[in-house]
Amino acid sequence: MTRSIDYGTLMHHAMRGLIQTVLTDVAENGLPGSHHFFITFDTRHPEVEMADWLKDRYPEEMTVVIQHWFENLKVTDDGFAITLNFGNNPEPLYIPFDAVHTFVDPSVEFGLRFETQDYDEDEEEDEEEIEAEEKPRTEAEVVSLDQWRK
Question: Each residue of 13-31: b (16+ CB within 10 Å) or e?
């Protein structure tokens, strides 16, 4: 079997690490200046934790804004927990980094978009069985911020 470097997967992990680093800094020091984030994520991801009424309202995808009011931001290697205000209802969320579709900071015109993933419960078993086959790649790309401009 010919071995090759999977740059797509490496880039994917690096960009998720960038989000982790940024959110860790915000958790420790708060949001600097006019920075704020739009984070879109897959609500169907098996590790997403959110109130049932939010999941009913956003059955596939949801965008949250981290800006003026948020509490309890805790970042791990796998994702982040945060409490956000939804119509004067503080709601805790847990969002794994693998569920994130986009991460945008419009204050500096920075954005990342990740390809969507299918979540297969038997994925770990399948990975062991397909050693010789190339694993599907998830790539990320920088996105235009025009879609978020008013």
Answer: eebbeebbebbeebbeeeb
pLDDT at site 104: 94
**Alpha carbon distance 111, 106 (integer Å):** 8
**Both tokens assigned to 137:** 């790649």
DSSP letters spanning 2-43: -----HHHHHHHHHHHHHHHHHHHHHHH---TT--EEEEEET
Q: What is the pTM of this model?
A: 0.74
Reading the block at residue 62, the tokens are: 């949801």
Q: What are phi and psi of 80, to 5 degrees?
A: -140, 150
Residues paired with residue 34 on neighbouring β-strands, in sequence order: none
